[in-house]
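Take a minute with the sequence and fold tokens given here and flag any structure token that looks odd. Thanks in advance.
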Amino acid sequence: MSISAFMGANSVIKPGVVTSSTRPSSPFVGQLIFETDTNRLAAYNGSAWITQNGLQLITAQTIGSAVSSVTVSNAFNATYDNYKIIVSGGVGSTDLALNLTLGSTATGYYSSGFNQSMTAATINATNTNNGTSFASAVYGSTNALSGEIHVDNPFSTKRTMVRYWATGSSTTYFVNQQQGFLNDANSYSAFTLTCSTGTITSGIIFVYGYAEI
């Protein structure tokens, strides 16, 4: 029997491929493993397994053509507490905002922040009081889509906190910064971005988890 029957991706034995609960019981210093349930590498330092830190890509969902909303399923899970969502590429059919909802919840959204012009020294305070979504989490125009959203504890049964930034770059040049929370203690795995008007085409919604040791 050839050695390929015992080693390699299609073999009986797959060195280094495990789950977080089936790590080697007697590892050696420098040993590397890949955990299929967490999708991350880990190395043994002589006393503990050290996993990758930083952002770990969870999903990259392509936006369709002329759609008024996009739902990203399986975005949040038990592996990570905190997440970053980035929306880039693509365009809007007109100047528009994309509002963020978690799961199917359509009430209890609170946020506040400001909208600042890039062409004048003008700052407008904004807020949402028990709204139906996190308003204007992303902006779109015929030039671009822009949005970065930080989400804390969406999968945990506690309040979900958010902070988000977006840039308008068509009729008016401005930046929008907000922070807020969803006033419930539900666990969420999915979110939806919905156009305030018009549609969006192309672009990608990236979801990253903040890895922990």
About this structure: DSSP finds no helices and 18 strands in the chain. The first strand starts at residue 17 and ends at 18.
